[in-house]
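Appendix B, Record 12. Input sequence as logged:
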Amino acid sequence: MFTGIIESFGTIQRIESRGEGKAIHIGCDLDLSETKMGDSIAVNGACLTVVSLEKNVFKVDMAPETIERTTFKHLRPGSRVNIERALKLSDRIDGHLVSGHIDGTGVISSIKKQSNAVIIKIDVPEKLGSDMIEKGSVAIEGVSLTINKCSDKDFQVSIIPHTADITTIGLKRAGDEVNIETDMIGKYVKKNLMGSVSKNDAFAKGKKDISMGLLARNGFL
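Logged structural output:
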């Protein structure tokens, strides 16, 4: 589990082919003395497992599914990435709950300066856009951000200078593809309300008509 608050830039040092998968060596400025093999680290928002570690360089394996669903297919030696170690239960949650499981990708359609902020508009598939709400949370490349405006086809976020300086968001250009994770709580609520989890759920499978009575009968009110 993560928060979407990026701790460090990382740099891809080496990429090894593993058939359709990859093994990637990543250097970063973090103190990894408490990190051990098997730990989870979010790289550009994707939860990956540390399989080897040496000083400030760690290695992760990427399965074909991970590469297909994310922007990792575009990584090259020298590429910069966002790094966040797993959340400790004693930590403050400054961003939002991020699973590190990428839902899909979007493409930056425009970047516009507005006073001291930058407004980024991102085009997304409808299956991602339908899981977003105005003023809700979204993780872009692992960065926790608030949605300013959204539709089923795109959404906008506002980036402050600090975020641009310490994450790869500040390096992006129009046309770049980015990893997207929508809010996990919203997805669970939506799936339950739509009745598509299983036939044993409180809501009948395929039920789409939501009413106050239906919510009350199933314990939501």
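The chain has two domains: 8-85, 104-185.
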